[in-house]
């Protein structure tokens, strides 16, 4: 299929349009595009969450007859790519790039169709800020609307939130409103309840003060005797008997005084038992090599003595006598000058 752009495209813009615009459902699945029943429609792309850089995609399907097909796009606050494909194999026919600006942007394309076929319009983009983006697309020329066909319903993913934590598209935790408990209404007995159900229900308890006495007749009221005054109970006073004064016994404090020194003696005896004999310090171990020493005798009569506690090791390497001390110092002597090496 050949693509052709003619010079009279912009001149035919207003002559080919049919007045009026219509809003359609916006499908994001290429397998379930929204059919266009009018040559003019509008759409909206909502802003995504901060940090979500995904693009929003809308698919529409319409028919095209043989001849020139003109497409006009008016957008606001939209950064998007608008493409037209052949429905048979999704062959690209045209592409428009729309950039956001302070004012509304307008652009258009002219497509030459050599035969009637079904076309798919794809709008893929996003808004550069938190405000929604809008677009209005008009068709002219060889556009043919799809009438009498209902849009197939695409499968919808359940967006319900289950659990105590809800997140948005970038993983930010969203606050959830607290659910207040709904007060339950008191249950009233139904009119059609059976006698068995009524018998099972407990009767309400009425306090004794709330019960009212039935009114009595005058004859019954006359028979009622007035309440007699209650008899006072006479309390007998206890007789006071005077006896001789009894002196308190003085034996108890003496016994208490005698008991205290006994307890102190027991505590002192326990402390004496707990005292242990002083520990004798063990003598430090004697090093058996304290009196052993390495003696090096030279041919010129000199002699070097090194105690074994200060010596780490000695060896002969490449004609030299190497003596390594525990302090880290290393002594080297030529074997030509050494006359004798002994350990005494």
Q: CATH topology of the domain at 13-144, anyone?
A: Jelly Rolls
* Helix residue percentage: 10-25%
In percent, how much strand structure appears in the residues? 25-35%
Shape: flat
Euclidean distance between termini CA atoms: 113 Å
CATH class of the domain at 13-144: Mainly Beta
Shape-level CATH architecture of the domain at 13-144: Sandwich
Quaternary class: single chain
Enumerate the spans where pLDDT stays under 50 for 5 or more consecutive residues: 1-21
Counting DSSP E segments of at least 2 residues, the number of strands comes to 17
Number of helices: 4
> Which structural class fits the helix and strand makeup?
mainly beta
Radius of gyration: 57 Å
Describe the protein.
The protein has four helices and 17 strands. Among the domains are: 132 residues, Jelly Rolls (Sandwich); 51 residues, SH3 type barrels (Roll), CATH 2.30.30. By secondary structure, the chain is mostly beta strands. Strand 14 and strand 15 form a beta hairpin. The protein is 12% helix and 34% strand. The longest helix has 24 residues. It is flat, with a radius of gyration of 57 Å. Strands 1, 2, 3, 4, 5, 6, 7, 8 and 9 form a nine-stranded mixed β-sheet that branches. Strands 13-12-17 form a three-stranded antiparallel β-sheet, with no helix packed on it. A three-stranded antiparallel β-sheet has the order 14-15-16, with no helix packed on it.
Question: Top keywords for this entry?
Answer:
mainly beta, nine-stranded mixed beta sheet, 344 residues, SH3 type barrels, Jelly Rolls, disordered N terminus, three-stranded antiparallel beta sheet, single chain
């Amino acid at each position: 299929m050949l693509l052709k752009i003619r010079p009279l495209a912009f001149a035919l813009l207003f002559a080919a349009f049919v007045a009026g615009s219509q809003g359609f459902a916006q499908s994001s699945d290429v397998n379930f595009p929204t059919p266009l029943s009018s040559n003019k429609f509008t759409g909206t792309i909502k802003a995504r969450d901060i940090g979500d850089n995904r693009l929003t995609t809308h698919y529409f399907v319409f028919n095209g007859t043989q001849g020139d097909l003109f497409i006009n796009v008016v957008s606001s606050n939209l950064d998007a790519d608008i493409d037209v494909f052949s429905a048979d194999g999704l062959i690209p026919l045209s592409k428009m790039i729309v950039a956001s600006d302070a004012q509304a942007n307008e652009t258009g394309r002219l497509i030459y169709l050599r035969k009637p076929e079904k076309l798919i319009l794809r709008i893929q983009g996003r808004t550069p800020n938190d405000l929604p983006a809008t677009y209005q697309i008009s068709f002219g020329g060889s556009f043919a609307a799809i009438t009498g066909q209902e849009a197939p319903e695409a499968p919808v993913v359940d967006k319900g939130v289950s659990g105590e934590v809800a997140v948005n598209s970038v993983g930010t935790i969203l606050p959830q409103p607290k659910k207040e408990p709904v007060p339950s209404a008191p249950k009233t007995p139904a009119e059609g309840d059976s006698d068995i159900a009524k018998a099972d229900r407990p009767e309400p308890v009425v306090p004794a003060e709330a019960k009212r006495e039935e009114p009595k007749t005058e004859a019954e009221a006359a028979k009622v005797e007035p309440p007699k005054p209650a008899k006072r109970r006479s309390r007998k006073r206890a007789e006071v008997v005077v006896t001789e004064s009894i002196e308190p016994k003085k034996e108890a404090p003496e016994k208490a005084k005698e008991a205290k020194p006994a307890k102190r003696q027991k505590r002192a005896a326990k402390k004496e038992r707990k005292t242990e004999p002083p520990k004798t310090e063990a003598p430090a171990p004697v090093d058996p090599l304290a009196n052993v020493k390495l003696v090096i005798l030279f041919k010129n009569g000199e002699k070097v003595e090194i105690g074994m506690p200060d010596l780490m090791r000695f060896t002969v390497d490449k004609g030299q006598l190497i003596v390594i001390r525990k302090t880290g110092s290393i002594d080297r002597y030529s074997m030509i000058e050494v006359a004798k090496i002994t350990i005494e």
